[in-house]
Design goal:
The complex is a heterodimer of chains A (588) and B (192).
Chain A lengths: L2 E5 H11 L4 E4 L7 H6 L6 E4 L3 H13 L4 E6 H17 L5 E7 L13 H7 L3 E2 L4 H18 L3 E6 H4 L1 E6 L16 H4 L3 H22 L6 E3 L7 E6 H10 L4 E5 L1 E3 L3 H8 L4 E5 L5 H8 L18 H9 L26 H10 L3 E3 L24 H12 L2 H4 L2 E6 H17 L5 E6 L28 H7 L4 E5 L4 H13 L4 E6 L16 E3 L18 E4 L7 E4 L9 H5 L5 E3 L2
Parallel strand pairs in A: 2-3, 2-4, 4-5, 5-7, 6-7, 10-11, 10-13, 14-15, 15-16, 16-18, 17-18
Antiparallel strand pairs in A: 1-8, 6-12, 9-11, 19-22, 20-21
Helix pairs in contact in A: 1-6, 3-4, 10-13, 14-19, 15-17
Chain B lengths: L5 E8 L4 H14 L3 E6 L9 E9 L12 E6 L2 H6 L4 E10 L6 H4 L9 H8 L3 E4 L1 H8 L5 H10 L6 H11 L2 H15 L2
Parallel strand pairs in B: 1-4, 4-5, 5-6
Antiparallel strand pairs in B: 1-3, 2-3
Helix pairs in contact in B: 1-6, 1-7, 5-6, 5-8, 6-8
Classes of the chains: A alpha/beta (588), B alpha/beta (192).
Bound molecules: thiamine diphosphate.
């Protein structure tokens, strides 16, 4: 059998291919993004980026109604955006199997919160599988699609960052064949969810969960594993926590759950009855633990293990033993941090430099540009969720008087604007708010690793596509003042922003420059710049743009000087424009 | 309890080619017949932030995260990022560090200071310590961008796997155009 070492995300894509998935739709979001990126290698799948998660799920629902097997993927907070269709999809059920991958991010490695999306399974009354490694990620994707059709339900597949991004060895199989051909079939009682119909579907949903609970007691994905001990300690666990439990408690017997909702209650009762000590080892919320307590089973879990952050072998060991894990080496000094920063040549930098100097109050949003909140740019004051910047600015402008009000600027990336920012702008104009909106159009969804979006002009599969006209959209929403700037031009950027901030009316400024890292855009990399030591006065103004290519060399006799690392510099010339002494120029 | 799993940690700064290095290592280990798990965080940490990759191998690996204080080998692509992860290394573990400093932004801004004499501090605590002049060897191999493969070469001495597994994997993973210089880089590292 062919073997490969795959990440959880690669394995999910492979599982979808093997299961005969025809349509895959997603909006990028760490740690889910690589699932769709990896679909591209399987020509039998139509894989696409939707403008947001709600649309992605709606596309998936349509494909499933047509009878095709479908996969929809998103990060945990994406499910909040897709929740509206999701809850009703649970009532309609499917025709072709539909699996919704929710990739959660305990520890907030790249997220704005660490919500535990297992709660959605219970809330939306949908089954949820949770793999513990890449092999299971592949197998459970297939299983989830089969179960979806067998029980006529959408099915969740939940991963966490450590599952999505860890690689382990996987066995590959051939894709299934002989799936039914998609076709139209009218079935309004099932798919037209008006009260009369929906009322009849709800009992079917409850019934379905009860059947799945019973079914789950007899399936190999919920399995009991003997430990090396004398059988006094039992553990119930799932997902990545299983690996830590196995690592830390080799002596314990483990009930490893592959399906975390609905729980196999009979199996659990039977298992629980055998142990003096019973632990539930799970990350984030006491999702399994609370259900066991409600069943009247005595278990220990969150009294020992943290509610916040991810688990690690050390955290599990420490929680269970009550003793800190010690290491051989510890530092005797404080180490400087190494926060991420905007890349050298990033087009966002010039905009934040201007916003900083204009003392703007920046109603922010999510993307690479959120790094603009960090020193030395320090020009972002809020960041709640994708698309929030514009609505937040409207709200702020409603409560402030004109001089203060003019300082409010909403800043949003192109992908985020098309995700959920448009509605905010519609509201801002419709309800006569007065604020400045700055759209950072780098023609790509950069934050998550550079995915195409409707303003980039290409699809996920690499086909040419219509490129959304940002100016026209803004004008169509009723914005009278739309201006386009090049953020590499420092003084022009400053001037236009100053003028538009002063205007007591909605205006949109579009800062247009492709992301430095996108190869296809025809921006020639310019030669690296260097600092002329003779001319450098050591004033440090160039450090205020926060470019990682500029280093500071202090010197024993006085001032010190700036230095440009030629391996990092891409010649964007922002530093050259801010230098008052003409000390920065092309390398000799 | 004897631990039949070997733990390798690779650390550095986002953009230094750590992912490719850990990818090569895990392919090699699979080829050599081990169970392998590898883990790292993508996303925010990529943009010049601190990056660390965990690789574990043996007969059967559970957690993909190395248990705290149990790394057998640490390979650092940058001095501060090597120093930062020393608490994850076990007593008697091996440390390899690329002799390179990249100043993080708090240092450039003068808010924090870059620790002094890092190599001496490492050597004091770990007797098996190797300082690698990655950039110099990469230039010698014909391309300054092969530093990560020089470092993989240096690491290969601490991982008991047949030479042919390394050669075969490099041939599979490196585009033919760059293969010769990468093989040279690997061998220069392996000779250290
Ligand atoms: C609901 C939701 N979906 C996805 C994400 C992940 N995410 C964060 S920012 C972002 C898009 C950023 O693209 P853009 O607005 O174009 O800014 P850029 O990073 O290119 O500067 C994405 C997909 C998220 N945080 N929330």
């Amino acid at each position: 059998m062919e073997r490969a070492i795959l990440s959880g995300n690669e394995a999910i894509a492979r599982g979808a291919y093997e299961a005969g998935v025809k349509v895959a739709s997603a909006y990028p979001g760490t740690p889910s993004t690589e699932i769709l990126e990896n679909m591209v290698q399987y020509p039998s799948i139509d894989a696409s980026w939707a403008p947001n998660e709600k649309v992605a799920l709606e596309v998936g629902i349509g494909a499933a109604i047509g009878g095709a097997r479908t996969l929809v993927a998103m990060k945990h907070v994406g499910v909040n955006v897709a929740a509206d269709p999701l809850f009703t999809l649970s009532y309609t059920g499917v025709k072709g199997g539909l699996v919704l991958v929710t990739a959660d991010d305990p520890e907030l490695h790249s997220s704005q919160n660490e919500q535990d999306n297992r709660n959605y399974a219970k809330f939306a009354k949908m089954p949820m599988f949770e793999p513990a490694d890449s092999q299971e990620a592949l197998a459970f994707t297939r299983l989830a699609l089969e179960a979806s059709e067998q029980f006529d339900t959408p099915v969740f597949l939940r991963t966490t960052t450590r599952i999505s991004h860890s690689k382990s060895i996987v066995e590959l199989q051939d894709p299934v064949s002989g799936l039914p051909q998609p076709a139209l079939e009218k079935n309004p009682a099932k798919f037209v969810m008006l009260p009369g119909n929906a009322r009849k579907r709800h009992p079917l949903v409850e019934d379905r969960l009860a059947k799945m609970e019973e079914w789950a007691c007899r399936q190999p994905f919920n399995r009991v594993e003997k430990g090396t001990g004398d059988g006094r300690v039992g553990v119930i666990t799932a997902g990545v926590s299983y690996q830590y439990a196995r690592e830390v408690l080799p002596e314990a017997d483990i009930l490893k759950l592959g399906l975390v909702y609905p729980l196999p209650k009979a199996l659990i009762r039977d298992f629980a009855a055998r142990y003096e000590t019973l632990y539930v080892i799970e990350e984030l919320d006491p999702f399994i633990e609370e259900q066991l307590l409600a069943m009247g089973i005595q278990v220990t879990g969150k009294s020992l293990l943290p509610l916040c952050g991810e688990l690690t072998p050390g955290r599990v060991a420490q929680g269970l033993s009550g003793q800190a894990v010690t290491s051989y080496y510890s530092h005797k000094e404080m180490l400087p941090g190494r926060p991420p920063s905007m890349c050298p040549g990033c087009p966002h930098r010039g905009v934040f430099y201007a916003l900083n100097r204009l003392k703007a109050f920046v109603s922010g949003d999510i993307g690479c540009y959120t790094l603009g909140f960090m020193e030395p740019l320090s020009a972002m004051d809020t960041c709640i969720c994708m698309g929030a910047s514009i609505g937040n600015a409207t709200g702020l402008s409603k409560v402030l008087d004109p001089p203060e009000r003019s300082r409010v600027v909403a800043v949003i990336g192109d992908s985020t604007f098309l995700h959920t920012g448009i509605n905010g702008l519609m509201d801002m104009v419709y309800n006569n708010a007065a604020s400045t909106v700055l759209i950072l159009d780098n023609r790509i969804t950069a934050m998550t690793g550079r995915q195409e979006n409707p303003s980039s002009g290409y699809t996920l599969m690499g086909a040419d596509s219509y490129r959304v006209d940002m100016e026209e959209i803004c004008r169509a929403l009723g914005v009278r003042n739309v201006r386009v700037i090049d953020p590499y031009q420092v003084s022009a950027t400053h001037k236009v922003l100053e003028e538009e901030m002063a205007r007591d009316e909605v205006s949109v400024v579009i800062a247009r420059r492709p992301c430095m890292l996108v190869k296809r855009d025809p921006v020639a990399r310019k030669p690296a710049l260097s600092v002329d030591d003779e001319k450098c006065t050591g004033c440090r103004v160039c450090l205020k743009i926060g470019c990682p290519a500029i280093e500071w060399r202090s010197s024993d006799q006085g001032k010190g000087s700036a230095h440009i690392n030629r391996l990092f510099c891409v010649g964007c010339s922002l530093c050259r424009q801010v230098c008052h002494f003409d000390a920065i120029g092309e390398c000799q | 309890m004897s631990n039949p799993v070997t733990n390798v940690l690779i650390s550095g700064v986002g953009g230094q080619g750590i992912l490719l290095a850990s990818e090569v290592l895990s392919e090699v280990l699979m080829l050599a017949g081990h169970d392998v798990k590898k883990n790292e965080i993508h996303g925010m940490s990529q943009r010049g932030g601190s990056v660390v990759s965990h690789i574990r191998f043996g007969e059967k690996v559970y957690s993909s995260i190395i248990p705290e204080g149990e790394a057998d080998v640490l390979l650092g692509f940058e001095l501060l990022e090597t120093y930062r992860y020393l608490p994850l290394v076990r007593q008697g573990g091996s440390v390899l560090a690329n002799n390179l400093q990249i100043f993080p932004s708090p240092v450039t801004l003068g808010k924090e200071t870059y620790p002094e004499n890092i190599p001496a501090k490492i050597a004091e605590a770990f007797s098996d310590f190797t300082l690698v002049d990655g950039l110099k060897l990469a230039a010698e191999a014909g391309n300054e961008r092969t530093v990560n493969i020089v470092l993989v070469g240096a690491l290969s001495k601490r991982v008991a796997v047949d030479d042919h597994c390394w050669q075969q994997t490099l041939r599979k993973m490196v585009p033919p155009k760059y293969l010769e210089e990468n093989l040279r880089a690997f061998n220069l590292g392996r000779q250290l």
